[in-house]
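Example (one chain per record):
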Amino acid sequence: MKSCKFLLGLTVAATAHTAMAAAPVLDINEQAEQTLQSNDVATLQRTLQVRNRALNQMQGQIDELQVEISELRGTIEEQAYTINQILQRQRELYQEIDKRLSGAPVQNTTTPTSPEPTSNINYSSDFTENEAYDHAVNLVLKEKRYEQAIKEFSAFNNKFPNSSYSANAHYWLGQLLFNKGDLDTAATEFNIVINNFEKSTKRSDAMLKLGMVAQKQNDLVKAKSIYNRLINEYPDSSAAQLAKSRLASL
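Predicted structure:
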């Protein structure tokens, strides 16, 4: 009888001890699960922050590359213009030499004639017009006097509204104003290129910059519309590829 009571007492004591030990185990498991969930959220937040910083850095690099590309294109235009001027002067010199050798009277050749256009660049027969455009471009590429270049391109567009350089001049002016932060005026210049010079090689670039203006003004709907238009109209252009990357980041 005493043995039964003793065994019964041990059983009750063991059951109570097991019940008491189970509750803390459950609490510890719940706490561990909550801790893991908190760690997952924190890790996700850190990952998103790193991703956003990387995207911002890439965006800044793309903007810098766009400026460099614009400057390089301006350099190419300037070099092409210089080469054409040299070739024209050489042709005039050869003509003068031929006339001297043949004994024919030499005519005045100091006034330059219109050089033959190369690639997609057209040159004016007005030497003053050529000088004015060349001077404005040099202010950007050589002298880095951007404020003065803005004045020179504005004056050029007013003085030579029908110039063969008009599309390029308006684009350059828009680019300078964009870099300065005058987004509304820059958008006006880019729209002039888009609406008035459908055959210009600057038109696709102007579309890209107009989309960037809208993006900087937080008008994302407008920016997406412009980027999609650019991609549809110039699918194989470098500007369209940049537009695609910008669309992906919106």
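Caption: The chain is about 80% helix and 0% strand.
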